[in-house]
Amino acid sequence: MTLAVMLQGTASDVGKSVLVAGLCRIFHQDGLRTAPFKSQNMALNSGITPDGKEMGRAQIFQAEAAGIAPDVRMNPILLKPTSDRQAQVVLMGQVATSMDAVSYHQYKPRLREQILAVYQSLAGEYEALVLEGAGSPAEINLRDRDIVNMGMAEMAQCPVILVADIDRGGVFAAIYGTLALLQPQERARVKGVIINKFRGDVALLRSGIEQIEALTGVPVLGVMPWLDVDLEDEDGVALQAGKYHRTDRRDIDIAVVHLPHIANFTDFNALAAQPDVRVRYVRDPQALADADLVILPGSKNTLGDLCWLRESGMAHAVEQARQRKVPLLGICGGYQMLGETIIDEVESGLGAQPGLGGLKTVTHFAQHKTTTQVQATLGSALPDWLADAAGLRVSGYEIHMGETRREAGCPPLLQLHKAGQAVDDGAISDDGLAFGTYLHGLFDSDAFTRALLNGLRQRKGLAPLDSALEYARYKTRQFDRLAEAMREHIAIDKIYAIMRQHQEPLC
Length: 507
What we know:
Elements (H helix, E strand, L loop, with lengths): L2 E7 L6 H14 L4 E4 L2 E3 L3 E3 L5 E3 H9 L11 E5 L4 E6 L2 E7 H7 L4 H12 L4 E5 L17 H7 L3 E6 L5 H11 L2 H4 L2 E9 L7 H11 L3 E6 L11 H4 L11 E6 L4 E2 L5 H4 L4 E6 L10 E4 L1 E2 L2 H11 L1 H10 L4 E4 L1 H5 L3 E4 L6 E4 L6 E18 L14 E14 L7 E5 L2 E5 L1 E2 L5 E4 L8 H14 L11 H19 L2 H10 L6
Parallel strand pairs: 1-9, 1-10, 2-9, 3-6, 10-11, 11-12, 13-15, 13-16, 16-18, 18-26, 19-21
Antiparallel strand pairs: 4-5, 6-7, 7-8, 14-17, 19-20, 21-22, 21-23, 23-24, 25-26
Helix pairs in contact: 1-2, 1-15, 6-8
């Protein structure tokens, strides 16, 4: 029998994704073949499986925690918002359609059968499954068509553990209120509570824990302290919450422009892990003044975000940085923005728009989405400050709906290795200070990242740094630290017992 447990939260950003990764790691350490599962993810942080399917980054790093390759079945539905009311619907790793929120809510019942089939196929291959909900199960306006919280727990016939974030305040009210809004059969499914992100002395909580257990009849399985572990975030809520606000000074200051529809900012986790780097996510034009490198990241609404750059004054600030000879990197949507023209009749419907003009490129959007993992080699025509990166092998993935053409005389940044052929990607400006690429995950390649950073150090008159950081090992250590902390502060034996003893009530 496959063991299963589901973590649901009292709200978004309470730490469900991280705790799911931790349980995956623990079960993997204990010798169980384990997989994560989230039926529906709404996020602009996505990645690509080895077979070219798109899925949420959260389930990718949870799979890594479980010691397995990501599989699109772990996240069969991915919603990628393109505006406040519209989202692209990615079904089993491929673009199905775009819908507004009301239409999608009406469409959800048609997805239940497929979700259940996918879940059952995973359950047939793994000994343990750790499911993750989305937002809160107490959204009573959405309950009738739910496919990701209690509706999913019902399909999977599994117990639920409720995760509550004490850092945001009102934790006991959140626990009590969530349970009070559940239907009786749903409440019966909740077998425990984890209080997350606690700072301070747990002794101060004991009376509150005793009272909430008495009021709800649901035991508190543990209190997780605020952990300084570096794992990828599921979506942009963490940016809004200021998680990535850095005040410490480092040798190299990198400013990532915080676009309204920023996508795949997990690209920069490997940069932020470097010992000599401070990565800042900025929206204030003044914040670019001291940057050693400015990055325009990916976007799920390239032309909409390009308009915002101009309206907010950030486009002018980027141009001023260019005049000060500050290097400028664009990735995916950011690469498109750096060009001379973007023609979009697909994503935004805004037609042809001028880009920022940093690169001699023209981008045409298309209906087809490129999704692939890929190996690549840096080109030889790199500027002097990047010379040490020439010819280096890197790996990453593509997720884009546009094709970008370079004008004559504009060199590529690298060559992608596809089906035995070298395909040019990216572009470099005439002065060697602006460059762009479609390749996500570029900074996970240690040698390239160190060559880039040492090039920036050279420009500042600093000696190169021989950093021993291996990002893959770094991530592994983060998973192990998380698992160790969870074993210390959560009754893992009780979670095992909950999974083994859970029986579905007879109808």
